[in-house]
Amino acid sequence: MIALKLSNIHKSFGPTIALDGVDLELREGEVHALIGENGAGKSTLMNVIAGSLQPDQGTMEINSRPYSPSNPLDARTHGIALIHQELSLCPHLSVAENVLMGIESSHLGWLDRDNLITRTSEVLKTFHHADIRPEKRVGDLSVAARQIVEISRALAARARIILMDEPTSSLQREDVQHLFALIRKLSAEGISVIYISHFLEEVRQVSDRFTVLRDGRSVATGEISNTTDDELIAKMVGRAQQHLFPLRTHAGGPRETILEVHNLASPPLLKNATFELRRGEILGIAGLMGSGRTPLLRTIFGLEHQENGSIVVNKKALPSGRSTPAMRLIEGLGYLSEDRKGDGLTLSQSIADNVTVTRFDSCSRFGWLDLSAQRKQAAQLVNALKIKAQGVRQNVGSLSGGNQQKIIVARLLHQDADVLLLDEPTRGIDIGSKAQVYETIAACAAQNKAVLMVSSYLPELFGMCDRLAVMSRGRLSEVRNINEWTPESVLQAAIGASDFHG
Asked: Can you say how many angstroms the Cα of residue 259 is from the centroid of all Cα atoms in its chain?
């Protein structure tokens, strides 16, 4: 039986066509993968189904009955729940208040808090996450924990159709496996899932069928088991993808050390890290979420307090007590945050402002910003990274998540930093965009810049890095050449299953 049917869905935002004729059939109890490049229209389509946007043209049906939600609450009453890629939680409220928002129990107008806590605890049992308690304030949770709260909210609503937009983007391996087991359980109970992911291995693991969107159109659909990854990628990008990771050549001879970190600590998460980073190399940092990888980069960049240890850049020791990101910029360090929405971008400002903000002196004279020069510099990088935008005056908040990520990469290129600190540089972006970002990172290394890259995606680390270290429980392993590691040994080190020096 067809649970949801979309026919010829169109949606435009002024001159920008987001959806240009989408057809999709979701069967009862099916997990249906929706795949495509950033800007292909996936998130827009999810918002149309969930009632946040009204289509300009086309029809929708649920169980063969016309479906045209006037708002998200209307969609929820029809049994549809959307799990957003960019989390849509209320950080000032508790976990329980977020999970049961709109479906809370009350008595004589008063919220039944005991029932709220009990019902939320039942839903949270699925994930076994120690950090998430019903009464805890959502704003105090990690990004990964907030993602679980978002998923729990959809489950609590007892939806019959669940739309998952990049649900694993902030989850670690154990939570991903819990989620997949849950999706299979929901499917067995007749609940249908539309699943968006840029990880094709995830799509294969959890999905039955797929639909590919390209430039706002549905261009292919079929059984996932009958289609190869190369065929899927070709359908997504409109051409065959030859190599995901660029081929790199290395100059002979010793390379100059540009960054030295010794016994660096920033409790409670970062306990001890020692390593050297050389010009022209890409050094990877692996580890589970919460292991201290992000605090390591944030401490080096002056965003978190350095309680112990030393940081030396270009043979110059950086002061530990009063270091700020502004001082780190002067020293030639650039930082890409894993949380593009919270730390990485000013969403209300233009592309041009976001790209040039860390180096305004390149487009200013006598303290005044030269808007023409600023826009020209930003436009060159937007074109080079193939960022889909109407122009550099467009607000960054109106771009797709993947294009927002590329804006941060563009800013690092504009800054021309000597040391690039990259925290999950390709999170939430499609395969074609990943290949572009990888080429950009490799080009920076070829220009004698040094790259320190944190990633949860092991193929990315093995495909890009010269050397690798693993963070576990706040301590960094010794750095080894990438060919001395295997995925198994990285995982063993990450979970503390093998001894290593920290």
From this structure: 27
List, in order, residues 6 or more apart from 30 with CB less than 8 Å away. Answer: 3, 187, 192, 193, 208, 209
The kind and range of the H/E element at 232 are: helix 229-237
**Are the CB atoms for 417 and 332 separated by under 8 Å?**
yes
CB 315 within 8 A of CB 259: no
Q: What's the DSSP call for residue 64?
A: T
**Rounded to 5°, angle at Cα 210 from 206 and 214:** 130
The domain defined by 2-237 carries CATH number 3.20.20.70: no
Domains in the chain: boundaries: 2-237, 257-332+419-427+450-502, 340-416
Distance (Å) of CA 244 to CA 48, 202, 409, 463:
32, 17, 18, 9
Tell me the C-alpha distance between 297 and 261, whole Å: 11
- Express each pLDDT in 115-143 by its tens digit: 888 888 888 887 667 678 888 998 888 77
Count other Cβ atoms within 10 Å, centred on residue 226.
8
Is 98 in contact with 151 (CB distance < 8 Å)? no
**Are 198 and 428 a contacting pair, CB within 8 Å?**
yes
Mean pLDDT of 48-53: 95
Q: What is the pTM of this model?
A: 0.65
Q: How far apart are CA 290 and CA 322, in angstroms?
A: 26
| Residue 458 in tokens | 């092991």
d(CA 370, CA 483): 48
Query: Quick one: pLDDT at residue 43?
Result: 87
CATH entry, 257-332+419-427+450-502, from 3.40.50.1820, 2.60.120.40, 3.20.20.150, 3.40.50.300: 3.40.50.300
